[in-house]
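Record minuted for everyone:
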Amino acid sequence: MRLSTVILPVRRWHDGGRDEWLRAEELGFHTAYTYDHLSWRSFRDGPWFGAVPTLTAAAAATSRMRLGTLVTSPNFRHPVTLAKDLITLDDVSDGRITLGIGAGGNGFDATALGQEAWTPRERADRFAEFVGLLDRLLTEPSVTSEGAFYSANEARNLPGCVQRPRVPFAVAATGPRGLKLAARHGQAWVTTGDPKLFESGTPDQSVEAIRGQLKKLGEACDDLGRDVDELDKILLTGFTPEPGRVLESVDSFVDFAGRHFELGITEIVLHAPIPDSDFAADPKVFERIATEGLAQLR
């Protein structure tokens, strides 16, 4: 059982940003992630910093805690340049980077580079090609590939990752094609639950939906001859019914986490509190959950 956090990149590094990452390490979180977006939802008109520079700074400031994206997508990334950034991040952090990766969506990132938003089918097509090429780029010293969407011409990535054979992938997916990618390339799988239940569903319905997702993940692994137990199962909170309840109290967290650990979830990720936002929460309760929550589940 692991407890992690996600720190949105909304604070200047020298005005609370650095301190937040250091505090996450002091609190004992397994991993501190950040979103990899150009802007995001209600935060679009406020400060929002880049994921890669933020993680590089966090890697230099911390020493024990793992770091990662939750999640990176093809919306504005290319496998060749992303691979170079990841190898550098892995080096600076001395092997503490996890790449959370997903297909992307229809948010602001989808059109920020001037393109039309991709259809769900095109997102899935691009994602499959993106992940496969990125896997090669991070494990082979030189890659040449001509794809339908992404190409590489003698792209060199020496000396390679500190982590071998490469940085771990945490693949966010719920559909058949995405789950197959998680089974083939992932060291972890990521879910936020069933988005259709967010506004009108119940906690029990959400648990059953995640149970169904885990079953389909197991089937995807079986099809490839892989043991599903090899994958960590990560739940990013904040998008299931009653999202604020998880951080209401230590007892509320323990109840929520216990039900999901019983399902087979191995890592729960909590948003670090941000005042006056969808992620507002009592910082003292958040810190108590970080230091006391898992102990009550063991």
In short: Strands lie at 2-6, 31-34, 66-72, 97-101, 142-146, 151-156, 169-172, 188-191, 232-236, 267-271. Residues 173 and 179 are 6 Å apart (CA to CA). The mean pLDDT is 97. The radius of gyration is 18 Å.
